[in-house]
Each structure stands twice: as C-alpha cells, then as structure tokens.
Amino acid sequence: MKIFYSEGHRQHNPPFEVFDGGERVPYLENPDRMDKVLAALRKTDWAEFAEPSDFGLDPILAVHDADYINFLDSAWTEWLAAAPEAESASDKSAILPATFALRRKPRVPKSFLGRAGYYMMDLSAVIVEGTYKAALASANCALSAAQFIATQVPSTANRPQSAFALCRPPGHHAGKDYCAGYCFINNAAVAANWLSSKGKVALLDIDYHAGNGTQDIFYDRADVLTISIHADPDFEYPHFIGFADETGAGAGLGFHHNFPLPAGTDDAAYLAALDKALELIMVYGPWSIVVSAGMDIYDGDPLGKFKVTRDGIREIGERIANLRLPTAVIMEGGYANNALGKNIGTFLEAMK
Amino acid sequence: MKIFYSEGHRQHNPPFEVFDGGERVPYLENPDRMDKVLAALRKTDWAEFAEPSDFGLDPILAVHDADYINFLDSAWTEWLAAAPEAESASDKSAILPATFALRRKPRVPKSFLGRAGYYMMDLSAVIVEGTYKAALASANCALSAAQFIATQVPSTANRPQSAFALCRPPGHHAGKDYCAGYCFINNAAVAANWLSSKGKVALLDIDYHAGNGTQDIFYDRADVLTISIHADPDFEYPHFIGFADETGAGAGLGFHHNFPLPAGTDDAAYLAALDKALELIMVYGPWSIVVSAGMDIYDGDPLGKFKVTRDGIREIGERIANLRLPTAVIMEGGYANNALGKNIGTFLEAMK
Predict the structure, then answer these.
(1) A84: which of A63, A310, B63, B99 lies 20 to 30 Å off by Cα?
(2) Which residues between 91 and 150 in chain A have a beta carbon less than 8 angstroms from any beta carbon of chain B?
(3) pLDDT (average), residues B17-29
(4) CATH number for the domain harbouring residue B39
(5) B22–A122: do the CB atoms touch at under 8 Å?
(6) Distances from the Cα of B198 to the Cα of B120, B149, B256, angstroms
(7) In which domain, by residue range, is A156 found?
C-alpha cells in the first residue's frame, strides 16, 4: 500500500495545550505519534512510503475561506509583532487566544488577537511557528493519496487500490474558517473535494470525535456524502455539533449523517453503526471513498471512552474494504501512542 | 449620596485567569478593588452606605435566559461532580472551559463541560464556588440603586437624586446567555430594565471596553436607549462587537449607539464623544439614566489605552449630572487599584 508521508509535521510541535480548568498540559497530538506509526509500518512488507506532491493552495482554498488560510499563514509573524495589543501575552511560545467569537453576528476585527479568537475555537489547536507549513504538508499527503487512487488502472482481479495519507496535524475538526482540536487544514475534506471533480464521493469519519469540520464544509453539498461515527457530543468534544438529527441543509439535505454513540461502545455496537453507515454509502453509489481514520476509538485511548479492540479495528477495515471502492485513508486522531502503530497497521492491513 | 454595597463579592475571588498565550496570571478583577473604593468613599462626608435589598430572581430573569442563570447556579457543584467527562481537569480550583461554542448553530449539549463552553465566552469570566452568590449580591446593589432613584421625591431646588451601586463582579460584558470579561450578571442591564417599567430609560456605558452584553440584551428594544463609549473593538476586547454601525435591530433600530475611540484618546477627544452621547440622550428624553461607570478609561489602567485624566473623569461626571435626571451609577471595570478609589470618588462627587 502506498503511504504518503512528510517529515514536515515535525515543525508543528506546540509546547503545551490548555485543558478544562485552565491548566497547561503537554501537547497530546505530538510528533511521537508519527514515530510510532512509522516504526510499525516499516516492519511490514507491504508499506511503500512516498513523499507527497505539492498541490499548491487551490485545492485547500476550495474548502477553506481565504481569510482563514491567510490568518494561518501570517499568524506567527503577527503574533510576535503584535504590540502593544498583545502586551498581556508575556509568554509568546504558542498562540492561544483568550477571547472567543461571541454568538450573534461576531465581526472579524482588525487586530491579531481578535482574529485569533475568531479563527481559533478551542485551546487545543495551538499555533506555533511551523504550524502552517506542517498543515500544508499534511494536506499534500491527503491530496497525494487522493491522486494516487484516482489515477490507478483498476485491476479486475483484485480490490481497487487504496492509499494511506499519514497526516499530521490531523484535519477533521477544522471547519471552513476555523481551527480546532489539533486540526488546522481539513485534510480529508481537501481530498474528498478534489476527488469529487471526478464524480460522487463518500467521506466516512471513524475518528472517536465528531468530524465537525467536515460536517461544516460539506453540509450544503450533495456531491460528497459525509458520515461520522463518533462519541455523542452530549458528553464529548466537540460538544456543540455532531447530533443525529443534523442531516445536511439545502441541496445537501440528506447527505450528512451522524452516528453518535455512548461511552463504553464495544466492537459489536460499533460495527452495528458501521454497517448502517456502509449501507448508506452503497445506496449513494460513490466512485471512491475517503476515510478519516482516527484510532482514538481504541479501548484505552487517553482521549476516548470507547472499548473497541484491535480485532474490532481489523473488522472495521475489512468491512470498509468490502465496499470494493478506491479508498484514500487519512490519518486523524489516536493518542494511545504505544498502541497507535499496531492499530493503524492492523487497520491498513485489512484495507489493502 | 446613597451607596449600595455588599460584602458578598468577597466569595468571588478566582485564583487566576488565563491571558492570550495560554498563561495563568493573577485575577485582575479582585476584591482589593473594592477595598480601595471603600477606603476612598469612607473619607468623604457625603457617602451614605447601605446594604442592598433582595429583589429575587425575577428582575434578573427579565434580561438573562433562565438556562444560563441555572448554569451559573449549579456550575460549581456540577464541576466538582463532573466525572468521568472532566477527568482532564486535574486542577479543579476554577471553572474554565477549553472549548468554545462553534459558529453556525451550536447546540447546548447535556454535559457540564459542553455547557460551560456554551455559556462562557473567554478565559477571564472565571467561575469559583462563590461566584453566583456574589453576582446575585452585585445585581441586588444595582437594583437597590435603581429603586432608590425611582422612589425619591424630586426636589425642585436640587439636582435629582443619584445613587451608586458599588458592584462587584461587574456586569456589562454579560449577555443574555453568556458570561465574559469578569462579568456574570449584567447589573446595569438588570437595573435599566427594572427602571424601564416606569418609562423610557437611557443606559450610558463609559467603561473603557465596549458594553457588548448590554448591547446584546437591549439590541431589539426601543424603551431603553443604550450608548457605549469605548476602545475600538478593532484593537481591543471584546473584539467582535461594539462597532459604530451597530445601531440596533427591529423595534430597537436607532436605539443603540457605539462610540469606538482610538488608543491614546485624551480628555478632549473623550468629552467630544460624550457630548454627542449626551445629546442623543436629551433627544430621547428618558425619565432616568443608568451609567455603567468603568474607571479603566483612566490613563495608566493596566487594561486600558486611553489617556483620560482625573480632571477628565470629574468633567465626565459633571456633564452627565447636567442632564438633571435621576441617575443610577453602576460600578464596572477599573484595574489601576491604587487610583481607583480617587477616580470613582471624583466621578461621584461631580455627580452628587
């Protein structure tokens, strides 16, 4: 299996995030995650690593607002220069706003700190000097995987080609105009939108957390079916979106589906939801699918409350593969670093 | 002058707030502010201290959503009990959410942390065990001042009666359903709404920061004219609201006015804006006014960038007093503690 990976992620290494209660903790979405995945995949006989191509900004600006991408681009320079407005920030090692956009028609102000509070939605999408470049490299991995599955000659005897984008930072919490939950550019959305120029695409998000950014980006569209299976936002991040009755709007009505599941969800319960999702995809009839593959569904993930086992992860991979569609698998979350390599390796082995 | 004050504020004493950059700093809106004001006012021969009456919840629920007030009421108990959802918050000394309500139709989730992110808008409106009771006592001070000016027999020879509510926590950043910027219950809005049952009221906000909460609460109403003179949100907190072209909506169109001013605004520039505001009030013809009196316009305030002097503050008080209307003055911000007593004393002396 082709695996698109860039070392560019290492320049995104925030010194901390802030948890509920206002306490700094080490950044959970860290480069060590990639090292664990790389070590596991390098032990296999089927992982073929490749550098991503550079697709430029156009496919990114097709799903994100230009003002938001410009903010990411200039954020670090502005943060260091922001004076006197940012006098309060005596520690400039990481960009985090302290004020967030109010409900009821917030306006984008001119100041950097104001824009930071407008474009950043939580205390986990921390921006440092290398964040934007790392996010671009990550999006290019996703686009390279999309291009790969789009250009392979189908082999009638075998399963259609799949490819894996080993993306870091992840993407599915990033909306049209905001970063959130470790995510800055929505890699899976960028890939799915790119693939949609060739026909209907389905995007299946199996990360533990609701794919709020993906929902935000495709909510009005019928040409990309988006489905997210996740922890119920009534108890879990991202809290405000991802409920079962959110099914799209306008032309996109009926083309988004959320499967919120309770804490403690085990293999059987998870697979039952997956089967419903896969049936929706089969009915939709896409020519290809994008999978937002978060491994934080795994029992014991520090940010998760599901009880999905490694056997369950293998079964999820096999059932998705049985769709027999060209598939771009995009790395999302998963924070049980010591299990992450084996988990994603097991998932991909079932998909190949 | 009657001064309504409650010691109840002391139970609201958060151990820290979080500034831009994710750094904990000592809570600037602290009980010492009141001690400085008390010391200054006790030296005068005109300050008559009185305990506030208890007005119950009805006048508060007339301007705030019940769900939000219920959240404030139960927040501390829920925060301590929140498990396992709040496992991440190893330090439970103060309530601060890490995720804020997303744009585009956020829903109120069931979990405590989700509701905290929905009802709390920044990292300065920190909730501790005594916050709700302190906020109720503060609102009762404002209501007592309102009641006092409403029930005094007018004296033809003298200026109409004014009263001062020495409120802490302050209120003008608290909106219908959110706390923000050290504010939980919008004391001035509660008082103005209470007074509006007796006829048209004007609310003049002279705090350095835009009175976003007051704007939010009265934006659709014509029976309370709201005017805020403040630092331009294009460079200053609350960033997303308080621009000059926000003038009300629906029945309230034309009954809200913002005067955003640049950094460095001095006495002359401030008084020019004030004169325009006072003219709007005279044209409106209210029977009474409420003044949100923040002293952070003072040159040297740690959270302000205006250059208003103590003479300027006296002049502001005199010009407002020249309206010759019953006036309830409500304490808002002001963080240059060592100057705060003299500043508010000077302002009130000019008003009496």
Answers:
(1) B99
(2) 91-111, 113-114, 116-118, 121-124, 126
(3) 92
(4) 3.40.800.20
(5) no
(6) 33, 12, 20
(7) 2-64+128-351
